[in-house]
Design a protein that fits this description.
Elements: E1 2-6, H1 13-22, E2 26-30, E3 39-42, H2 48-55, H3 59-66, E4 72-75, H4 77-80, E5 85-86, E6 99-103, E7 112-120, E8 132-139, E9 141-145, E10 151-157, E11 159-167, E12 170-173, H5 181-196
Parallel strand pairs: 1-2, 1-3, 3-4, 4-12, 5-6
Antiparallel strand pairs: 6-9, 7-8, 7-10, 10-11, 11-12
């Protein structure tokens, strides 16, 4: 099995590709889209605007790929790029999910960095055997989907916010499963199982 880890100038490409190799995948890190893969992974640590700018040259092709029915996993900023826009700065997301990315409330310390519990709100293959689990966050912004039905799990940090989103074959986590120990491994294994189905 082959996973494309899209490299668009943001961090954690190495740790994400390493996590997939550990799960038995050939992880191909590339700035270009490739069709000879079984799934696409969009990692991300960084600012929305430079990432949106970086993917602008392949935006239409990337939207086609994400909507094609191939399994896709967006992590942190990679998941935020599924939405239309972000309060963090100018730039156009992929718009595969309607809604925008908004800041955490000013009443809390930002970024939200460290371990927090996610609570599953809907049954989904990505969250099989995942109930109230500790996972690792590092973010100041979170998605605000137009359709609440895509929210699969929530976390609380000053407010409740979507921690996992998903619809059909498109999944996103606001936390970093590759840095989330047992729970993260479980979620990545569930994604691998979904890819292999």
């Amino acid at each position: 099995m082959k996973a494309l880890v899209l490299h668009y100038g943001v961090g954690n490409v190495f740790s994400v590709s390493h996590a997939f190799r550990r799960l038995g995948f050939e992880a191909v890190v590339s700035e270009k889209l490739r069709r000879d893969v079984d799934c696409l992974v969009m990692p991300g640590v960084g600012n929305f605007s430079p990432a949106a700018e970086k993917i602008s040259s392949i935006r239409e092709e990337l939207v086609d790929f994400v909507m094609s029915g191939a399994p896709v996993l967006g992590i942190c900023l990679g998941m935020q790029l599924f939405f239309e826009e972000s309060e963090e700065g100018p730039g156009k997301g992929l718009g595969v999910f309607r809604g925008k990315v908004v800041g955490l409330p000013p009443t809390v310390k930002r970024p939200h960095m460290g371990w927090n519990i996610i609570r599953r709100t809907r049954q989904n293959p990505l969250l099989e055997d995942v109930e109230n689990e500790w996972v690792y966050f590092n973010h100041s912004y979170h998605p605000s989907p137009a359709d609440p039905n895509i929210i699969l799990a929530e976390a609380n940090y000053g407010i409740s916010f979507p921690a996992v989103v998903g619809k059909n074959t498109i999944f996103g986590t606001q936390f970093h499963p590759e840095k989330s120990s047992t729970a993260g491994e479980k979620i990545l294994r569930n994604f691998v199982k979904f890819v292999k189905r």
